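User: Abasic site processing protein. Structure?
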Amino acid sequence: MCYHYKPATEAKRIESRFKATPKMPLGDAQMTNGYSYPNMPVILNTSPQFVTLAKWGLVPFFAKDEQEFLKKANTLNAKIETLESLNSYKNYVENRCLVLAESFKEWKHETVNGKLFKIPYEIETADNLPFAMAGIYSIRNDIYTFTILTTEANDLMDEIHNTKRRMPVILGHQEESLWLNREPLKPYYNRNEIRLVAERI
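Assistant: Predicted structure:
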């Protein structure tokens, strides 16, 4: 799964890469823990020319209390394969967004002499440019919230994320506009064609 990532926040890099303009200052590009439910930069399918901030952790319309819902339900990530069948997500499949990132973080589990070690890795795309993770969003009380979609790990992430064997759905440059235009989900189930590099940190 993906619970830590470094958002893309530098306006010039975002404008060059995504042809979108931030509506407001986006803060610092630092590795962020999703369980703080931060506001993060996204591009919404309703306004692809702009970057806006949305709260990480999708809150559906039926949640009576946002904080209570987020404590009970982990909506930081959603499996793309089951998206259309789960109550928390099925009403938002057409609400597409690009989640703008510089890198994300996962831990490799290794056992040495009977002791478990969790080794952190920072992962980015091979071109060292900002990239987009596939997301969906909800609008509730005029507040945007989103979740990052995940899929089966590719070869690199299968080696690193060797317990859950999942990874975020990372979109290729040519796929981003198709995603925002609500292309069917199934073409994004496998991400072996996305070249990633990882560094132990």
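The chain is about 15% helix and 40% strand. Residues 4-200 form a domain with the hypothetical protein yedk fold fold (CATH 3.90.1680.10).
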